[in-house]
Amino acid sequence: MESAPRSIPGAQAIARAASLLRLVTASGPDGASLQDLARSADLSRSTAHRLLSALRAEGLVDRDAESTKWMPGPELFLMGTVAAARYDVTALARDLVRSLAVKTEESAFLSVRRADETVCLLREEGSFPIRSFVLSEGVRFPLGVASAGLAILSFLPDHDVDAYLERHPDLEATWGRPHGERPLRARLAETKERGYAVNPGLIVEGSWGLGAAVFDRSGRPEWALSLTGVGFRFGPDRIADLGRTLLAHAHQLSARIAGARR
């Protein structure tokens, strides 16, 4: 994520609080410990606790009395309900995500672009009994890492891709050598030519993913549909079939979004 302008009074504190909010919401229903949140936000425990306590006082986060873990608060639900009227496309996508899961037997997802990340909004389980659990609702990945973010990044204008890579020189150090600039640019070109992204177990060994960008009315990739599953299910012939099915559903969702926002 881009950092808040330091020239704005209070911007650093707001940016830190926002970072903690994102981490809490990404932790899922089980919540996250103070230690984990502080480490992920690169804050001291005392600073993280002070900010979380302030957020709790406003109802934005909550703390479980038994586990002491931090979880999303009730005010987030109310804010999200209001914001959904403008930003939420899950109602348009839900049956398509379900259709993907039924037709492919793999886990299917809808993710949205949020600045330099993707956030999973919907997950639908396929019928195949062995599943990948890399992705679930609320989980975030940087663009270019998971298949959804790779698909979105591939169809952004070249200058946006260049700017993104300049902002995130640490991708290789954090996610491994395949996410260095040269190999990532090669995968972006392959994705653009193929039409959909392939992640051959680069996040978790043996867990493969496919992603296809979904576009807004102006032609910008703001969402993605994706599939994940175990590697032996993603042979060359089947990947081609899965890719065609994924693209068809992504094109249908793009058309729905364009029609709904006229």
From TrEMBL:
SUPFAM superfamilies: GAF domain-like (SSF55781), Winged helix' DNA-binding domain (SSF46785). It comes from the Bacteria. Residues 75-259 form the IclR-ED domain. The keyword Transcription applies. Keywords: DNA-binding, Transcription, Transcription regulation. The keyword DNA-binding applies. Gene3D superfamilies: 3.30.450.40, Winged helix-like DNA-binding domain superfamily/Winged helix DNA-binding domain (1.10.10.10). Residues 11-74 form the HTH iclR-type domain. One of its GO terms (molecular function) is DNA binding. This is DNA-binding IclR family transcriptional regulator. It comes from Microbacterium phyllosphaerae.
